[in-house]
Write a structure and sequence with these properties.
single chain; alpha/beta; Rossmann fold; 3-oxoadipate enol-lactonase activity
Length: about 280
């Protein structure tokens, strides 16, 4: 195990398949954080440190990131299955799940397939569908993320500019650094695989079936998962609470870590069932 801040350590499942960071009281209610396309477990360091005193906190390296082995084929169904396997391996199938961007899609996919049984969920910077891969938005999305790599630039070279596009005008400096470093360390093959994994995702029909407490956090400056998209998601989930962070971009938990953490803390405090 590698030691981190606030008692957070880096470790792996017994079979070595999945890497993750962990902290807090292992006998407490578990929160599992799931990052997006350009992340790794450490992108939730601010929230891990904040919630470790009161919860058992875990941040997962999605397959192909950090120290988690890549999947042979990365799709939302295979990523959801991997999440189910990971939660089973750490005995946390009923954990509170916090999914950011792609991580939020993985949570939705896993819930729809009955692979997880979370006490509650937090979705941020995400959407319930990507749309048709041949649509104009989808084509621009894929091209915008892959064209620089196709031109020969590296993730390390692109990281700073990408992070600026994922945050608002006044991001938290330490949060910005954490996100930039994660992007720089992202394997190009994993980044490419995850961009293409999005193209068939559509869980819009399942939103009304979500019955656990759900917090949806949007940033007003998020152009990837605009607040109006997340508001519509919340409207279709009977148990949803919607929070909008003014000035925050796509990576709201790093852009405005204190405000993001406060929104989570208020939500969890208002639902006694998540602590059972």
């Amino acid at each position: 195990m590698a030691a981190g801040s606030a008692g957070i350590t880096r470790t792996a499942t017994a079979d070595g398949r999945f890497g993750y960071t962990e902290g807090g009281d292992a006998s407490g209610t578990t929160i599992v954080f799931i990052h997006g396309i350009g992340g790794r477990a450490e992108v939730f360091d601010p929230q891990m440190a904040a919630f470790a005193p009161d919860f058992h906190v875990i941040s997962w390296d999605v397959p192909g990131y950090g120290t988690s082995a890549p999947l042979e084929t990365a799709t939302l169904p295979t990523l959801a299955a991997a999440l189910g396997d990971f939660l089973s391996a750490i005995d946390a199938r009923d954990a509170i799940l916090v999914g950011q961007s792609l991580g939020g899609m993985i949570v939705q996919e896993a819930m729809a397939a009955g692979l997880v049984s979370p006490k509650a969920i937090v979705l941020t910077g995400t959407s319930p569908a990507f749309g048709r891969p041949d649509g104009d938005f989808q084509k621009k999305f894929i091209e915008g993320r892959l064209a620089p790599l196709d031109a020969g630039r590296t993730m390390a070279e692109l990281a700073d500019g990408m992070m600026k596009g994922l945050t608002g005008p006044n991001p938290d400096p330490e949060g910005f650094r954490i996100g930039r470093d994660a992007l720089a360390a992202t394997p190009e093959e994993s980044f490419r695989a995850m961009v293409y994994a999005l193209v068939d995702f559509d869980q819009r029909a399942n939103l009304p079936n979500i019955s656990v407490p759900a917090l949806l956090i949007a940033g007003t400056e998020d152009t990837s998962a605009p607040p109006q998209v997340m508001q519509k998601m919340a409207d279709k989930i009977a148990t949803a609470t919607y929070v909008q962070l003014d000035g925050a971009g796509h990576l709201a938990n790093l852009d405005q870590p204190d405000a993001f953490t406060e929104a989570m803390r208020d939500f969890l405090a208002g639902h006694d069932s998540v602590h059972a």
